[in-house]
Each structure stands twice: as structure tokens, then as C-alpha cells.
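Lab notebook, design round three. We kept the backbone fixed and only want residue identities now. Task for the bench partner: fill in a sequence for the structure below.
Input C-alpha cells:
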């Protein structure tokens, strides 16, 4: 079992920055592809960014490329999402995800952290 706990959300003005954190426990996050997803009211949950288990590859949704950066600290077993130049459209609940179903390690979600960007 893996437990994921997000933090760092809040209210920020457009153009501002936030850094989200996701602390993993129960297993090393380097065993998993670690992702951030988000869900706005009335919309489906959507992919934001991923860092592969090897740490050698990242990928981003087109809507956040150049503004968001995903990273991890293996020693702290923590995933981060640095969000710069935030836009009102970025307002959502942000979820941390750990996925290694291909190796039988399962998939896990955090409880989410709210990000609100005011215009």
C-alpha cells in the first residue's frame, strides 16, 4: 500500500506561483510513475504532468508546458509541482497519482489539494 498526501494549494492571483507537494509513504515513490492530475468543477479529471519511475523522463499537458515543472526528491520521498504564471483556468483540485500497474504494484491517489487562481 502507498499513501499519498498532497499539500501546498491555496488562493493566488493570476500570474502568481505555487508549489504543490505530495509525500509518499509505504513504498518508495521511485518505484512508480508519479503524476499530477487536476479536476475543475463540472469537468473530468485531466492529466497535468508525469515523471517516470526512472526519473529520466517527464511529460506535460500542452496547457501547462513552459509554466509547470514536475520534480521529485527521492530522499524525502516527495513529489513536487512548481506552478508559475498561474491562470484562472488552472483552478482545480490537484491530485497526486502513483502508477506502476504494469509491474503489478497498483495505482494510488491522494486526497487532493485545492488551487484557486483569481483574475
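Proposed sequence:
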Amino acid at each position: 500500500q502507498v499513501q499519498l498526501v498532497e499539500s501546498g494549494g491555496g488562493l493566488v492571483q493570476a500570474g502568481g506561483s505555487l508549489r504543490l507537494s505530495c509525500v509518499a509513504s509505504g513504498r518508495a515513490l521511485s518505484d512508480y510513475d508519479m503524476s499530477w492530475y487536476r479536476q475543475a468543477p463540472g469537468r473530468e479529471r485531466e492529466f497535468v504532468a508525469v515523471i517516470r519511475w526512472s526519473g529520466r523522463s517527464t511529460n506535460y499537458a500542452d496547457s501547462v508546458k513552459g509554466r509547470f515543472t514536475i520534480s521529485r526528491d527521492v530522499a524525502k520521498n516527495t513529489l513536487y509541482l512548481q506552478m508559475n504564471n498561474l491562470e484562472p483556468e488552472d483552478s482545480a483540485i490537484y491530485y497526486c497519482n502513483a502508477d506502476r500497474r504494469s509491474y503489478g504494484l497498483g495505482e494510488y491517489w491522494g486526497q487532493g489539494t485545492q488551487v484557486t487562481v483569481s483574475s
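Keep this in mind before ordering anything: The CA atoms of residues 90 and 117 lie 7 Å apart.
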